[in-house]
Amino acid sequence: MKPNKLKIAFLIIVLTYTCIYSQSYTVKLRKFNKLVYSEIVSRYEIFSSNKAFELPETPFQSILSQRNTSKGRIIRIKSGNIEYDDKNFINDEKISIPRKIESNLQHDLRKYLEDTVFLTLNSSEIVNATKNFNPSDKDFISKIENFVYNHITNKTLGIPLLPAANIMRQRSGACTEHSVLAIALLRKCKVPARAVIGAVLTPEFLGERNVFVYHMWVEAYINGKWELVDATSPGIKHPNRYIAFAYHSLKSAMPLNVLGAMGVISDMSITYIKN
Hints:
Number of domains: 1
CATH architecture: Roll
Number of strands: 11
Radius of gyration: 19 Å
CATH topology: C8orf32 fold
Shape: globular
Largest sheet: 9 strands, mixed
Helix content: 25-40%
C-alpha cells in the first residue's frame, strides 16, 4: 500500500475510534429488578435486529438459548460466577448449547502472554512498572488494578487505542487505556491476560439510571482459573453485571470482530430475567 493510502487508512481508524468512544453508548435494562445488584449469577435476554448477531461464551458468560425471529435474533445468557451456579443448580434453565470454554487451555494460554504493538512489553516504562509486582502475592490482582487506576489520573474519553508505554507516560484514558495497561503489566509478570469488549451494568451513568454502558475489561488466568480484572473499579467484583461481546487481540486497533461488537450496542435491547 502506498504511503498516502496508509495515512488515509490510519486517519479513518483514528477518527472512527474517537467518534465511537466520545459518545455515551448505553442500553437501558428492561424489566429492571434491584435483585440484579445482589445476585451472584444473573440472566438476560438480548435482542438485536441483526440475525447474524452472536455472543461468545466466556468463563463468566454462558449461552442458554438463541433463536431467530421475524424481527431479529434473541440470545439468552447467564452471566457471573457460573461455576457457583452450575454447582448449586439455582433455578437453572436447560443449557441448549454445549459450552466450549478453554478446550485447549494450555495451548491458548501461551498466546495471552505474547507481546503486541499495543502492549510494548519490553519498553522501559512497562519493565520498570512491573518491578514491584509479584504474582505469588495474595493481593496481586488488586495491586495491579489499584496501580493502573491511580496512575491514570486524567479520566477521559475519545482517545484512540494507545500503546501501554504511551499510557504510562501520558496518564490519560478511559476503560480501554486502563485495560491495555493492566494487560501489559499482567503479561510482563507472566500472567496470561486478555481484553474483553462488552457492556457493564451501572446504577447511574451521566444521569441515566440502571443502564449497560459500553466497556472494556480484562480476564487474567491466575491460580488455575480466569479472574475478572477491571482497573476502572479496583477491588469491585460483580461478574454478573458484565455482558461480553468479543475478545480484542490488541494486535490492531480495529479487528473485524471488535468493529462488529462496537456496532452492536446501538442496535440492542437487554431484558433482565428474574431467577
